[in-house]
Amino acid sequence: MLKNKKGLTLIELLVSVLIIVILAAIATEQYNKAVERTRLQEMAASLTYVVSAQQRRYMNVNRYTENFGVLDTSFRGASGTSYFAKPSGTGGGFRVTLSGTGWNDGVVVAVRATGEEDTLTLPFAYQIERYYVNEATACQSTPGASDFAAFNGAAVCADFCEIDNLEIGNWCCNDGSSTNGGSAEPTGRCRRPSTTSTGA
Hints:
Layout: H1 10-61, E1 82-85, E2 93-99, E3 107-113, E4 126-131, E5 138-141, H2 147-161, E6 171-173
Antiparallel strand pairs: 1-2, 2-3, 3-4, 4-5, 5-6
């Protein structure tokens, strides 16, 4: 007499494997977004150090600098107008650039990049900026990147700014304001300082 064998059929096994693959894909995506949010927060904190150094410089010589080498705080590998900053871990870093020497146009910008010039091969494409006289940081999904990278960049920026969503190419500020359907410039506490102000 034949014994009744217990076990999985091929269909049951395939369905089980498919479910595991789907769950793994979802978990991987959520993990990657969490890592990217951490990178963004790390860079925003680094920009705070740049802003503080620029504010001290402005108080001493009444202008900002576009040269990392003359700041009173050193940034590893920084010299000239821009440098490539790589936060801890793998997966690229940020190209950080100083721009403007006047009170109302001094800004530091960090663009997500895999290397000195490459910005289009990452799964997240965005940039953050902070004017030296502002207390808040703006974030924008990088226009011109792949749709996938720009969409992911917009999602990470929206999380950073604590808003529900951000349209690709628009700005948001970590004070909760955004330019969805509006201005091409950051708003709220992230907007460009007025030209009528005379000092910090």
